[in-house]
Amino acid sequence: MHSSDAVREGLIELLPRLRRLARALAGQAADADDLVQVVLERALARSVQWRPDAALDRWVFAIARNAWRDELRARGREQHLFAPEEAGDTVADGSEARHAQQMELAQALATLPPDHREVVALVLVEGLSYDEAAVLLEVPVGTVTSRLARARATLQAHLGNDA
Q1: How many degrees, rounded to 5, is the angle at CA 76 between CA 66 and CA 126?
Q2: 68 and 109 co-located in one domain
Q3: Where is each RNA polymerase sigma factor 70 region 4 type domain found (predicted)?
Q4: E strand or H helix at 110, and its extent?
Q5: Can you give the pLDDT at residue 51?
Q6: How many independent structural domains does the chain possess?
Q7: For residue 148, what is the enclosing H or E element?
Q8: What is the spatial distance between Cα 125 and Cα 119, in angstroms, rounded to a whole number?
């Protein structure tokens, strides 16, 4: 199978994970959707650069991370969280408490610096090991550990948890 065909097929399987990562990085549904589109376009356009012996998800996640950093640089400011469009979907379904918790968590994630949000997205959301995240982010494992510890502390303080 040609590498571009393998990338195309692999992207279909990776789509749910890519959407989760994009949502964790961007915070807003519209920005996450835009990020996913950019990542898919870049991955397809650069499919010949992917080596079949390399993990496709790591390659695609690196594209996502770089695309999001490009977007932040282009904006010249950090993202601010606005209520996502789907926030109105659960208004009358009796899940107000769950929805409020999700919004509170989304707001807490939005307060994190981008480098901390990346580590949270990769390790806590996508389940990458510290070593895998370090390779993807091109930083030492200790930096991943440190960023994650600071991100957790910030999230706990923001969410009012003592543990």
Answers
A1: 35
A2: no
A3: 103-155
A4: helix 96-110
A5: 87
A6: 2
A7: helix 141-159
A8: 9
The residues of the chain scoring below 50 in pLDDT are 77-83, 90, 162-163
Tokens of 143: 């930096």
Asked whether 58 and 136 are in contact (CB, 8 A), the reply is yes
Shared domain check, 118 and 58: no
Long-range contacts at 18-24 (CB < 8 A, ≥ 24 apart): 18/60, 18/61, 18/64, 20/121, 20/125, 20/126, 21/61, 21/64, 21/121, 21/122, 21/125, 21/126, 22/64, 22/68, 24/109, 24/117, 24/120, 24/121, 24/125
CATH number at residue 106: 1.10.10.10
The backbone torsions φ and ψ at residue 54, rounded to the nearest 5 degrees and listed phi first, read -100, 155
Cα–Cα distance between 84 and 92 in angstroms, integer?
16
Same domain, 18 and 46: yes
Buried b (16+ CB within 10 A) or exposed e, 99-113: beeeeeebebbbbbe
Residues 61 and 2 in one domain: yes
Question: Residue 160 phi/psi, 5° resolution?
Answer: 75, 20
Letter for the amino acid at 106? A
Do 99 and 75 lie in one domain? The reply is no
- The residue segments making up the domain with residue 28 are 1-79
What is the pTM for the complete model shown? 0.62
